[in-house]
Amino acid sequence: MRVEMEFLGSGTSSGIPTIGCDCWVCNSSNPRNKRLRSSVLFRVGAEDEVRLLVDATPDIRIQALRAGLASVHGVLITHTHADHCHGLDDLRGLYWGGGRVPIPLWSYPESLAQLRRSFAYIFDADYEYKGIVRLEPHVFEHQPFQAAGVNVQPIPVVHGNMRVAGFRIGECAYITDTNEVPDTSIELLKGVRLLILDALRRAPHPTHMSLPKALETAEKICVERVFFTHINHDLEHESINRELPDWARLGYDGLKVAIEEDGRITVTEPGPGGPPPVAF
């Protein structure tokens, strides 16, 4: 089974460049230093591809347009901080593109409760205005679940005092917004060969992994390749990559990483100049 993860965004909650910042990374002309809020798209299978969107960031409209994404088969929510769910309303375009069939959405129970409070109108079957997204909500806890026929293993991780879900599909896994992956979750990740993992900055942070801790965690899992995400403006793409071991790299918007049906790990970069430009 082929599993691809496409970086729709690789930035921290403020995005890069950050409003009001005059640092060298925010002023960089390198497109790999321009980071929308963190999200990934799983593409599973070759024929009859299943597309599973992880999180609905405030940048989802731009992310979907430049990825050529018109519809999805489901949405997986990691947690309900604003940079991961405040694009929920913009899923209307994917709902329309999918023939106005309600989009299945999976989350922890507490995350769904928060989404119902924040976006009450979306979950109100009697809401008069019809130009909105319709969702089919589901909850998960620790057990694997089926999303559009794809087996998904939730991976519980710690984000300060909050529970966040990572997701494993086959030998690929995506984990954002964490300062600790518990040993029980390390066990759930055994056998993962390709990992996308939170690495906010060099220095320790109370709710996110530092780059050194993220490298240490990837080594504990014994992955073949790791790409980092949820990156702030302390990490300049090219200079940091020169410091990393061959099996680790910073992710960036538009990058696609996959495990092919024959078991090869492939990395597909955007064309010259990076992904289609976004006006900043």
| H and E order | EEEHEHHEHEEEEEHEHEHEEE
Helix share bin: 10-25%
* Sheet with most strands: strand arrangement: 6-5-4-3-2-1-14-15
Broad shape? globular
Helix run count: 7
Structural class: alpha/beta
Beta content: 25-35%
Q: Please, how many domains? A: 1
Termini distance?
38 Å
Would you give the CATH topology? Metallo-beta-lactamase, Chain A
CATH hierarchy: architecture: 4-Layer Sandwich
Brief rundown of the structure:
This protein has 280 residues and is an alpha/beta fold. It is 19% helix and 28% strand.
Explained architecture:
This protein is α/β, with parallel strands linked by helices. It has one domain (3-268): Ribonuclease Z/Hydroxyacylglutathione hydrolase-like (Metallo-beta-lactamase, Chain A, 4-Layer Sandwich). The chain is built from seven helices and 15 strands. The strands form two sheets. An eight-stranded mixed sheet has the order 6-5-4-3-2-1-14-15. A seven-stranded mixed sheet has the order 7-8-9-10-11-12-13. A hairpin with a 2-residue loop joins strand 9 (162-169) and strand 10 (172-175). The longest helix has 11 residues, at 211-221. It is globular. The termini are far apart. The model has no long low-confidence stretch (mean pLDDT 96).
Topology:
Layout: E1 3-9, E2 39-44, E3 50-54, H1 60-67, E4 74-76, H2 82-85, H3 92-97, E5 103-107, H4 109-118, E6 135-139, E7 145-147, E8 150-159, E9 162-169, E10 172-175, H5 183-188, E11 194-198, H6 211-221, E12 225-229, H7 237-243, E13 248-250, E14 256-259, E15 265-268
Parallel strand pairs: 3-4, 4-5, 5-6, 10-11, 11-12, 12-13
Antiparallel strand pairs: 1-2, 1-14, 2-3, 7-8, 8-9, 9-10, 14-15
